[in-house]
Design goal:
Layout lengths: L56 H4 L13 E5 H11 L3 E2 L1 H6 L9 E5 L9 E4 L1 E2 L1 H9 L3 E4 L1
Parallel strand pairs: 1-3, 2-4, 3-5, 4-6
């Protein structure tokens, strides 16, 4: 094998069409772009959703839905969680600081709502942003107190 015998492996190369190199190439003139129109010009790029001038799908479909700008997202904490926390840490007062310290609530600005799932046996003073009616009744039934922050 010598340098003058070297050539690419069979099928590894393709003949490249040299477009726009004059009439002798057979691909001169319009350079495979056809006649006139946006696609024939330099700088053309098809926009996302363009359907050839037809009204695009995202404009044909109706808008729907509603987003309430005053909606508040609460993190739910159940009575069973409060009971478990009170037993583990021997607490009588549970507020947002205690819930964050225990790793139940994450985030400084998280709103907390106490829900009535589970059973509460200890008389606790509970501070939260919101309470369900049944949770509030259950806390007061065992001699506890609720405070809305």
């Amino acid at each position: 094998m010598k340098l003058h015998n070297l050539k690419p492996a069979a099928g590894s190369t393709h003949s490249r069409r040299r477009i726009g190199r004059g009439p002798g190439s057979g691909l001169g003139g319009t350079s495979t772009r056809g006649h006139k129109g946006a696609k024939a010009r330099s700088g053309y790029s098809k926009k996302i959703g363009f359907e050839g001038g037809q009204m695009p799908l995202q404009r044909r479909l109706p808008k729907f839905g509603f987003k309430n700008i005053n909606h508040k997202e609460y993190f739910a904490v159940n009575l069973s969680t409060l009971q478990r926390l009170a037993e583990e840490k021997n607490l009588t007062k549970i507020g947002l600081a205690e819930l964050r310290a225990a790793g139940i609530v994450k985030g400084k600005n998280t709103l907390v709502k106490i829900l009535a799932k589970g059973e509460l046996k200890a008389a606790l003073e509970v501070e939260a942003n919101a309470f369900s009616k049944t949770a509030e009744e259950a806390i007061k039934a065992v001699g506890g107190n609720t405070t809305i922050i």
